[in-house]
Queue: 3 jobs
Job 1
Amino acid sequence: MNEHSNIVPLRQPDEIDDPLTNILRSGARQLLAQAVEMEAEAFLAAMKGLKLPDGRDRLVRHGHGPVRTIQTGIGAVEVARVKIRDRAVTSDGERIRFTSAILPLWARRTKSLDALLPVLYLRGISTGDFQEALAALLGKDAPNLSPAVVSRLTTEWQLEYERWQKRDLSARRYVYVWADGVFLQARMEDHSECMLVLIGATPEGKKELIGFQVGVRESTQSWHELLVEAKTRGLKIAPEIAVGDGALGFWKALDEVFPATRHQRCWVHKNANILNKVAVSVQASMKKDLREVYLASNRASAEVAIDVFAEKYGAKYDKAVECLTKDRDAMLAFYEFPAEHWDHLRTTNPIESVFATVRHRTVRTKGSLSSTTAKLMVFKLLCAASKTWRRLKGTNQLPKVSAGVRFENGIEVIQVPENHAA
C-alpha cells in the first residue's frame, strides 16, 4: 500500500547543496566507467590471437566485480571492476589475469588524496580531524579517511620509509645537488628544528630525493650527518655543483665531505636578501637590474652587470651592493656548466615548490608534531612530488670535466694537451 505524505524534507545545516559538484560527480562516474570498459576491451583485443583447441577465444568477459566507492578529489565515485576469465588451464595451473591500471584491485582512494594527507598533517591537522577538514570536498563522513584508516596508512608509510632509508647508493651518481632547510607550519617539538632536504640530478637528467632529516638549519653538524649518511650508503663520487641558500651551514659541511664540489648560491634567496635592504620604492628597479645579472648570456656579461649595479646603487644602498658582490663567484658558478641547465642551477626551486603550502612563513599552527611523524609525512610529500620534478633540459647532461672537455659560458670547449702535435 503506497502512502503519500505532504512533509517536505528540509536541508540540514551541515549539508551543502551544490548542483555543480553533483553534476561533476555524475560525469566522473560515467567517464570512469567508460575508461574501465575501454581498458578491458583493449586488453581483450591484444589477446585476440589466443584460442582454445576448438577455436573459441581463450579470454572472455566475465561480468563485473561488486560496485565499490572510490574517494576522489570531488567526492565519492562508484565504479565496478571489469572481470575477464581465462578459459584455458595450462599444465602448471597458471592463468592469464587482467589487472586494471586505472582501478587497482584494492584501491579505495585516488593517489592524489593519499598525497594530500601528508600536507594536512604538516599544516597541523590531526588524524581525527581529517574527515571534518575534507567534509565540504568529499562529503560528510567520507569513507576511507577515518582515523583508523589514516593510522593504518601511516604504519604502512613507516615501513616504506625504513626500506627507503636502507637503500644502496653505490650505483648512483648525482652530478648536481640542491639543499634547503624547511621550517614547517606544524609546530615541531623544538622551535629550532627544521627539515634538511637534499635532492640530486643523475647524469641522465632525472631528479631524485637523496636524503633528509630533522636538524638545525644553521648547524653544520646536522648537514654533515646527512651528507655522511649518503656517503656511507655508497655515494662516493662528489657532485659537480651544489645549489643552496647562502645562510646554510650546509656549505661548510659540504667542503668537509665533498671538497671538490663547487658552490652555487640560490638567486631567489639572494634577490630577497638584497631587496630587503632597500626601500620599497626602489625594489622594482633594483629587481630589474638583478635580472640583468643572472639572465645574462654569458659570465662576462654577468660580471659587467654586477659592476653596473654596484656603480648605480653603491652610493646610497651600499649594504645591498655588498650583499651581492661578496658572493660574486658563488652566484655565477652556474655559467661553468651546460647552458641548458642554467635554469635548474640558479635556484633551489625543486625543494621550494614542494613545501610552498606547508612551510613556516609567519605564524605556526597550534598543534604539536613529533620529529618522527614530521619526517614520515615529509617523506610521503617528497615521494609524491618527485614524480613531477622537471628533468634537466638538453641532451648533454654530464659535465665532461674529466674527459678533456670543459665549459665556458655553457659551451663545450675541447682541451687540447700542450704536447699534442699540430
Note: The CA atoms of residues 21 and 212 lie 39 Å apart.
Job 2
Amino acid sequence: MPTYHYRCKNCNYDFTEQQSFTDDPITVCPKCGEEQVRKVYSAVPIEFKGSGFYRTDGASHSK
C-alpha cells in the first residue's frame, strides 16, 4: 500500500499514513481535530540505469 504524507494547516502537524488507492484522503487532523489536513506532494526522484542516457554511451563521437 502507498504511504502518503499529510500536514495540518491549522497546527502544522506532519504525519504519514498507509492507505489504499481507493481510500478517501484524510481531512481531520489526529492532533488538533480540525478539518485542515492536506496531502503534501513532493518530487519523486528519478534514477537512470543502464546505457543510453549519457553522451558517451554507445555512440562514436569521431568527426
Note: The two ends are 52 Å apart (CA to CA).
Job 3
Amino acid sequence: MSNATPDSDYPLSEVPNGARKGLFSTAILLFGFTFFTATMFAGGKIGMAFDFTTLLWAAVIGNLLLGLYAAVLGLIACRSGLNSVLMGRFCFGEVGSKLSDMLLGFTQIGWYAWGTATIAIVLVKILGLPESLTIPLMVLFGFGFCLTAFVGYKGLDLLSRVAVPAMLVLLVASLWIATRDIGGLSGLLAVEPSESMSLSVAITLVFGTFVSGATQATNWTRFARSGRVAVLASLFGFFIGNGLMIVAGAYGAIVYQQPDVVEVLVLQGLSMAAVVMLFLNLWTTQDNTIYNFAAAGCNLLRTGKRKTVTLAGAAIGTLLAIGGMYEMLIPFLILLGSIIPPIGGVIMADYFYGHRARYPKLAEVRLPAFNWVGLGAYLIGALSAYFSPWVAPLVGIAVAALAYVVLFEANKALVGRQQVAGA
C-alpha cells in the first residue's frame, strides 16, 4: 500500500498512467529548468577562450552529450514511473539509497540558497534599494519561489508555460542587440580569444555545470506519456535549452565582457527587462530545485508529505542564504558535479543490465538494506571522476556503469559457487 495520495506527485511510488503528461508539458518544464544563470558563466569562460566557430562546436558536443545522458535516464524514468532517488533503492538498497538522497538533496538546497541570495542582492543593486532590504528580500523570495513547487507538477508546468516564452523573447532581443553592437556576424567571427582552454575542458564545463540537474530531471520525465516524449523533452531541455544558456553567456562575454544576460540587459539600457529576466530565470530554476530537494527528502525520510518537506527545504535554503553560506557552498557544489553523475551511470547499468530493463513494483518487492554491487560501482565511478584529467562527469558515468556490470557478474558467480558448495 502506497502512502502517496493522488495529488501528492507520488513521492514514494510509481506515477500511474492516468497522471502522465504530453510532450509540450514535459519539454517546456525542462526548458525552464535549464534556463539557469550559473550556466551562462560557464558559457562566458568558453566565449573568452575560443573563436566563435570552435565555441559553437564545444557547445554542441557538450550539450548533446548532456541531452543524451538526460534522455537515457528519462526513458528509464518513463518506463518505470520512478525518479532517480526511488530507482536508487534498487541500485543501492533500502538503506544504501540514503547516500544518493543526501548527495542529491544537498546539491539542490545549496543551489536554492545561491538563487535566493542572488535575486535579493541583484535587485538591491539594479533598483538602487537600501542595503537593509537584502535579508527581507531573501526571506520573501526564499519562500515565494517554492510556491509553484509546493503545488507540485501542475504549478511548475503553469509557471513554465508563461515564463519560458517571455524569457525566449528577451533573450533573442538581447542577442540581436549584441550582434548589432559588435558589428554583425562578421564582427563576431573576427573576435580573437583572449584566454586559452582545451576543447576537452570546455566540454567538461558545458557537460558538468548542469549534469546534477540532468541526473534529477527524472522527477519530471517519469510523468511522460511515452518513452518518445521523455527522450524528446530531455533533448529539448538539455541540448537546446542548456545550449542556449551557454551560447548566451559566451555572446555576452565576447561583446560586453559580461556573461550574465541580466547584467547584459542592464548594459543594453533595458533595466526593467533585466529585472523581469532575473525574476523568471531564477524562479523557473528555483522551484524545480526545491522540488528535487523534496523528492530526495521524501525518499530519505520515507514520508509522503512532499509539501511539508518542500517548505522545510525552502526554510533551510533561506537560512543558508541569510547566513552567507551560499558563497562557501558553490565550490563544493561544483565538486559534487563530478561525484553525482556516477549515480546516473549505476542507475543505467542496474536497469538495463541488472534488471533486464524492467523494475518490479516498489510496493511488491523486498530489497536488501545495502546493494553492495551498486554502492561499490558508485564508489569506483566517483573516484575515477574525481581524479580524472579528462571530462570528469563522463568518466564517472562510464566507469560506474562498467564497474556495475563487472561487480554484478562477480557477485553472481560467487553466489553460484556458494550454492554449489551448500548443496
Note: Confidence is low (pLDDT under 50) at residues 1-5.
